[in-house]
Specification:
The protein is mainly β. The chain contains no helices and eleven strands. The strands form two sheets. Strands 2, 4, 5, 6, 9, 10 and 11 form a seven-stranded mixed beta sheet that branches. Strands 1-3-8-7 form a four-stranded antiparallel beta sheet, with no helix packed on it.
Amino acid sequence: EVQLVESGGGSVQAGGSLRLSCAISGNTRYQSCMAWFRQAPGKERERVASVRSVVGIAYLDSVNGRFTISKDKVNKILYLQMNNLEPEDSARYYCALSDMWCNDFLTNYQFWGQGTQVTVSP
């Protein structure tokens, strides 16, 4: 069974940086899309960044240029480097895997982590 465990969240001031990690275990042979989502209180969960195989990196418009998604295939870790953080980035961040194309539909993703909290103060 596939398991995802996020880490790296915390509290920072606006303009600061954090790097989130998602450790992946289990058989991920058929998982072609790896993504980061976030959910703030009272808001829907939204896709922040995703990567499919060796091509197809996508970012939410509001984080493009500030966040970078990457993966360590050998150690099976997905990263999200977040720079120049803004209070609007405060949310719980989740990593997710899909055996299909990357998209925004939550049901497209078969596996989810428990999330890690990011809080950005003004």
